[in-house]
Amino acid sequence: FLATDGFFGDELYVTAGTEASTRRLTDMILGQSGAGITHLTAYQGSLYFRRSPATDTLYQRKNGAILRFQ
């Protein structure tokens, strides 16, 4: 899911349903600007998403890693 902690801007987070298990996956754009993540789509155990401004790059999160596709 997307969330902000008030410092990093909108970033991708994961949770197991408790506050203690909730964490930011990565700071995709270092600093205070958000990652611009859009189009979150879950499919066959992976999470796919795009970033804006549009770069025609598709990202996939699988097994804890964020992979980049061109």
Largest sheet: 4 strands, antiparallel
The helix count comes to 0
- Net shape: globular
The helix/strand series, from N terminus to C terminus, equals EEEEEEE
Strand content: 35-45%
Rg estimate, integer Å:
12 Å
Helix content, binned percent: under 10%
Number of strands: 7
Query: Which class do the helix and strand fractions yield?
Result: mainly beta
Q: Please state the average pLDDT score.
A: 76
Descriptive report:
- There is one protein chain.
- The protein has 70 residues and is mainly β.
- Strands 4-5-6-7 form a 4-stranded antiparallel beta sheet, with no helix packed on it. A 3-stranded antiparallel beta sheet has the order 1-2-3, with no helix packed on it.
- The radius of gyration is 12 Å and the shape is globular.
- Helix content is 0%, strand content 44%.
- The chain contains no helices and 7 strands.
- The protein has strands at residues 2-3, 11-14, 23-24, 37-43, 46-51, 58-62, 65-69.
- The mean pLDDT is 76.
Question: What is this structure's SSE topology?
Answer:
Elements: E1 2-3, E2 11-14, E3 23-24, E4 37-43, E5 46-51, E6 58-62, E7 65-69
Antiparallel strand pairs: 1-2, 2-3, 4-5, 5-6, 6-7
Annotation keywords:
globular, 70 residues, three-stranded antiparallel β-sheet, 0% helix, mainly beta, four-stranded antiparallel β-sheet
In summary, what is this structure?
The chain has 70 residues and is mostly beta strands.
